[in-house]
Specification:
2 copies of one chain form a homodimer.
Chain A: E1 3-5, H1 16-25, H2 36-53, E2 60-64, H3 67-78, E3 82-87, H4 90-101, E4 105-110, E5 126-132, E6 134-135, E7 140-141, H5 144-153, E8 158-162, E9 179-183, E10 195-199, H6 201-212, H7 223-230, H8 241-257, H9 259-279, E11 284-285, E12 297-301, H10 307-315, E13 318-322, E14 331-335, H11 342-355
Parallel strand pairs in A: 1-13, 3-4, 3-5, 5-8, 8-9
Antiparallel strand pairs in A: 2-10, 6-7, 9-10, 11-12, 12-14, 13-14
Helix pairs in contact in A: 1-8, 2-8, 3-4
């Protein structure tokens, strides 16, 4: 049995194959997206997401094709002039670059790969400050407290959080941010093809204000139109209904298991992995400062290179992430996602220890 | 066994459940979208699409989330000033409205629902002329010859064809158009969540020219960047890999069955359905002019209303499309897609005749 400890696409949540069978027998891919059956299914998924995230009732759940799309839509809907980006890896940089490609006034604060941020000033006129909770490329986590501080000091700009490879690990204080988003092929252990935006009221207001000035906020994925549809358990276009169904089922499984307990398991396993790396004769955690270490994507520096280790582990049917971009061949990136059973984790640890 | 004769989402192509099983056992949803395994899979799908459509080698296959997204991307990538739309139903109108929402100079020629177009002049300065091969809302087909005439008379504007609910029924002369697109939940009998753009060289050139002027052509789904990736069997973002896999498998199934033979079956069944409607004591084909009748979405006028008929058929596990928008409750829309076996079609005919 192959196990994919890759930081997304990744191992499927163990219940997914059965949920796909049920979806097929219930004709989920065939029913009309305007039918009552679809609306009920959609409503169940949104409700389960609300419970997993303890989302305030005035927040909306909006579905996109990917987190990459959500970057574009946040800028398109909410930015007239200036957006500010905390960039410390490939994915936070891509959001920043999306702003450049839209010819917007985008600014950034940069940290080296593997490093957290120190406090930086935000220039006046910035409409949105964008954080990445978990840089999937480097395994650096930006602490909640760091993000919340910006709300206190800069109450006017919108605050967004890319929680792509960390959700639903973090228990957010929703009053401190305006939007958070993820894609389903990470911690939810689902096939790729769906991005989810949890969207606070200030985001919707800002998008409406921008539209009211007479400029375009896009054609079909404008937030005010999407919000109106989602309140009716509907989407603008024919959506990836199978993915919406599967996400709802996995959320229900997580709720049955206990979200708090699931978060605790992630914390415990992360600790075991970091202790293993700290004690390793040659390997070490890439992120040195413990307060910036991701709990869901654990990145290890391998001075002897990662190619042979990855091959050895693959020989044991363990697929582990390689270093990202410029770190390819130098690192391991190990997904610590909820999809893994205790037995999966034991197998991983045993094989990692054997290589040592 | 329920049969979904709805014009999308629709009945799954009969091999799809087995292909999903194979995808799961081959870990298609878990493999990295940067891996050789993914590239091979992607390449096989593109090759199968090329064969189904006998696509010229200088055309590219680009993947999106939906045909709705493709409307936006065509305008965003290719239009600086003016786009012209042939509008004769809800979907062609939405493409036109997308141009308005992008604040572009869009123009249209309108035909009443159920009617084809007569020739109209195209104003100078139009950069793109957009046709809908098959209006899913009305069952009106725009003939190839009508579209090709515009190429002859207006060689400069790009010509695009929405073939959402008709592909791969039509055997296009690719030298006469510049782009054609569809979504997979229609004739390919797949779960929704993937749109496919078949993209000729003039489209890519136009997008590059627009980008060269310094204006935005979008962030991640700009055609020149997508074309570069697709030539490497890659995508910009983490894609809906399961859908790409399933599309390839269904295309291979269609090739094994014979695309010509499949088109012939559609033609024969359409003829049987239209003859049934012509001979019906009360019902009639909505599209009166035979040269404008869709072969894949057959729309019937029911003077006594469609509600009870739809319920009666549903009681026999036959789910048929209702009239669209303003025609809801007044019409049937019957999908004549390749997913249906001879037996499925026989059951449909038998039950339709019983109601008569």
């Amino acid at each position: 049995m192959k196990r994919f400890f890759t930081p997304g696409p990744t191992h499927l949540y163990p219940t997914v194959p059965n949920h796909i069978q049920t979806a097929l027998s219930q004709h989920i891919p065939s029913i009309s997206h305007r039918s009552e059956g679809f609306k009920n299914m959609y409503g169940e998924t949104v409700q389960a997401l609300r419970e997993v995230f303890t989302l305030p009732s005035n927040w909306e759940v909006l579905f996109f094709a990917s987190a990459t799309e959500i970057w574009e839509r946040l800028l398109q809907n909410c930015i007239s002039t200036h957006s500010f980006h905390f960039v410390n890896g490939s994915f936070s940089d891509r959001f920043f670059m999306a702003g450049k490609k839209l010819k917007l006034g985008v600014m950034n604060a940069e940290a080296d790969w593997g490093q957290g941020f120190s406090e930086v000033g935000i220039p006046g006129g910035v409409e949105m400050i964008n954080f990445t909770r978990n840089e999937t490329s480097t395994g650096v986590m930006t602490p909640e407290s760091f993000i919340y501080d910006y709300r206190t000091k800069h109450p006017d700009p919108l605050i967004t959080v890319d929680m792509v490879s960390s959700a639903p690990y973090t228990d957010w204080d929703w009053s401190q941010i305006d939007a958070a988003y993820f894609s389903v092929q990470k911690c939810f252990g689902l096939p790729a093809g769906l991005g989810v935006l949890l969207c606070g009221p200030r985001i919707l207001e800002r998008a409406q204000e921008k539209a009211n000035t007479g400029v375009s906020i896009g054609t079909y994925h404008s937030f005010p139109a999407m919000a109106q549809k989602t309140r009716q358990n509907q989407t603008i276009e024919t959506p990836n209904g199978l993915a919406i169904y599967l996400l709802g089922k996995v959320c229900q499984d997580m709720l049955a298991r206990g979200v708090k307990e699931m978060r605790q398991t992630i914390r415990e396993r992360a600790q075991i992995l970091y202790e293993f790396l700290e004690a390793h004769p040659r390997w070490s955690p890439f992120v040195e400062d413990t307060s910036f270490r991701s709990q869901t994507v654990i990145v290890a520096d391998l001075p002897e290179g990662s190619k042979e280790v990855l091959e050895q582990l693959a020989g044991k049917d363990l697929i582990i992430g390689n270093g990202y971009g410029k770190m390819k061949g130098k690192q391991l990136r190990i997904a610590n996602f909820p999809a893994f059973t205790d037995q999966d984790f034991e197998v991983l640890l045993t094989e990692l220890r054997k290589i040592s």
